[in-house]
Design a protein that fits this description.
Blueprint lengths: L2 H16 L3 E3 L6 H5 L12 E4 L3 H14 L3 E4 L15 E4 L6 E4 L4 E5 L4 H9 L15 H6 L7 H4 L6 E7 L5 E5 L4 H7 L8 E8 L5 E10 L3 H12 L6 E9 L14 E9 L3 H12 L5 E2 L2 E4 L16 E8 L4 H11 L9 E6 L21 E8 L6 H14 L25 H14 L33
Parallel strand pairs: 2-4, 3-4
Antiparallel strand pairs: 1-2, 5-6, 6-9, 7-8, 7-9, 10-12, 10-13, 10-14, 11-12, 11-16, 15-17, 16-17
Helix pairs in contact: 1-3, 8-10, 10-11
The structure holds flavin-adenine dinucleotide.
Flavin-adenine dinucleotide (FAD) binds next to strand 3, helix 5 and strand 9.
Amino acid sequence: MNITDTMADRDLDALRAALAGQVFVPGEAGYDQARQAWNLAVDTRPAVVVEAESATDVAHAVRYARAAGMRIAPQGTGHGAEPLEPLDGAMLLRTTRMRQVRIDPATRTARAEAGAVWADVTVPAGQHGLAALAGTSPNVGVTGYTLGGGLGWLARRYGLAANSVTAAELVTPDGELVRADADHESDLFWAIRGGGGSVGVVTALEMRLYPVAELYAGDLFFPIARAAEVLHAWRDWTATVPDEVTSLGRLLRFPPLPEIPEPLRGRAFAVVEAAYLGDADTGAELIGPLRRLGPEQDTVAMIPAPALAQLNMDPPQPAPDRGDGAFLAGFPDAAIDALLAVAGPDADAPLASIEIRHLGGALARPASGGGAQPAIDASYVLFAVGFTPTPNLVAAASAQAQAVKDALAPWHAGYDYYNFEQTPAPARAVLPPASYRRLQDIKAAYDPDRVIISAHPVWSAQTDPGGIQRSSTYQGEHP
Ligand SMILES: Cc1cc2nc3c(=O)[nH]c(=O)nc-3n(C[C@H](O)[C@H](O)[C@H](O)COP(=O)(O)OP(=O)(O)OC[C@H]3O[C@@H](n4cnc5c(N)ncnc54)[C@H](O)[C@@H]3O)c2cc1C
């Protein structure tokens, strides 16, 4: 052991002593479990994993990393770990133990610690007849989701989750715990609302809740042989619905696994999933044109808001997957045809799910005082994912996700959706250009040494390795 190792050991011992949480280094029991992301296909080997128990722990960990010359990758669940750069030599700073949530029904707000997942918020909020702008999965982290924008079932009515954040507590790269809101640290407050987690380690978020106790929502399942008819009908329907309807059209292939219920097991479907913020009679009238197509299974009914978490049938347990997504300027007939040519009923398509979500409504209007994603300049968003239980399936799923993305390239919008971009890509590829430029300035001011590793890196204007080329050529009309 040399002198440097001894010093490093001593510092690590001091860190362990200072923390309520835990520290793991390679070779120690618990290291493998602590570094494991929700996406089991991701295999990172950080120099240190810290499982913080509190904001104070986070601050200690950040200061340790700075002193040791380590970069820091903040992480909650690891749902979004796929695009991360290798973490060799870095600290993985996990917030999984920080899951306290406080709901304030009087002010219709929630405060969620950085490790909370959406079910931690939606279930207690629902007890007060309130809903948060959660995503489709109850297990996705509130923080990572919200920092990247956050598109959920109420999105066309209430916009991105990021723009409903009222305050963030975070530890800056200097190790200071600060509060960012409309009156304090306005640059940080702007950056974390849609610009990802590149300017510090968030320890808690406060957000608005909405008075939504129940919705008319559910899924319509059609055999995949009817995919063309269903996707065309759904796309036409999206042009007619009010902002209170958020929906998606989907190709869904279930594996032949015993845990999948019998009518779905081993079969493929074209599915429409929809949520309407209103009463059953109006909802039934709105969904009528799709219901009249005669779905094989129809679950659309009044449900309590927290039950939205089941609509998209996202995996309840960690799973290995490969996926990708893209904002689409439109989804016209030719795009549907192009998608079905690579992933329709006759295609040899290993992806479990390809969904097209309808955007517009509140998402298209600049949020008052909004953050780095003030509005979305795209009409639809693609998300394609394949499960990869064995390593030999990884290449096929990646290739298929890329094939789907390529097939829709003529309709790509100017940039991709931060949260759905799964291939490594800089933040400039997933943000509006003006937001990216402002984020570069904020990153340079708060993290000039680029200590914080984020899902999509922010480079300074001097060091940016260059813009990515988008294949967008679509100039047509909506849809
Ligand atoms: C099954 C599934 C369903 C999904 N559904 C939706 C959906 O409906 N809508 C949607 O918009 N997205 C959705 N996503 C995408 C999801 O929002 C992103 O993957 C998001 O990054 C996950 O956040 P996380 O905290 O769970 O993941 P993590 O991997 O823990 O975090 C992702 C990134 O967020 C940043 N981050 C996390 N915590 C902190 C922190 N404390 N401080 C600073 N930075 C931090 C880091 O850069 C980190 O790499 C879904 C993903 C999956 C796998």
